[in-house]
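Quick note —
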Amino acid sequence: MIERAPLLNAVTHVLMIAGLLIAAFPIYVVFIASTHDLPTVNRVPMPLWPGEHLVQNYTTVWNKSDFGAKMINSLIVATGVTIGKITLAALTAFSIVFFRYRARMLIFWAIFITLMLPLEVRIVPTYAVAADVAEPLRWLVWLFGFELGIAPINLLNTYTGLILPLVATATGTFLYRQFFLTIPDTLVEAARMDGAGPLRFFREHLLPLSRNNMAALATIMFVYAWNQYLWPLLITTDARMATATMQLQKIVPGPLFGQPPVWNEAMAATLLVMVPPLLVVIFMQGAFVRGLVATDK
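Predicted structure written out below.
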């Protein structure tokens, strides 16, 4: 039975509208600042209505900062990280749930504990490995008493170096594991009686059933990878490999460079960088919500 509570509904809508205004007002201010010239933006208080320099500011930022190439770099990195995270998380959860071996729960909890170790904590060893991928292999060979000359493998200033260290995801593994645990044993037995092997069962049964989970995870991970700043800043020294998020630091030079911040151009650049993940969230919203709350597996 659904009770009608007009007063409660009205209060709920007022709170939702208030929350929307609080969340959207800073973005509105950023947009307004990106449409004015610098003296107007520095005025106190700044006008809260659009100015006449919108096209000029966005054109200046796009051309001065080479945002076209940087957007492509960010798109490649975000797409690669998203695909890698979905693939690795699905295969890992599939192994933990559907294969019976002794160390599977130990492996799961070891992966789950890494949620407490963000990239910033392990940034130094991750960089050391990316600078020479063959170094751990040389140490392993040395422990067994062998000497093996392996040439250094450098992943700095490469898409592989930007993508590979970000591919592992405990969140994705946990999300897929929780979904795979809801798969009935009868479906597994039916697939086995039909002659389906593990990979066929994974490809033809589990992946179609987990489309919503895949969409939810892809949305989260694309935004996460697009907004990465510290790792691309550390691993790239070649300006051609810079991402769009890294490029924002050059729009606001600050006093260290002897120049005043050009805030109107900085706000325009911020909105440009924000557009791709925003579009992904808008277009994936339905599948994202279904992947998080759907119960009819």
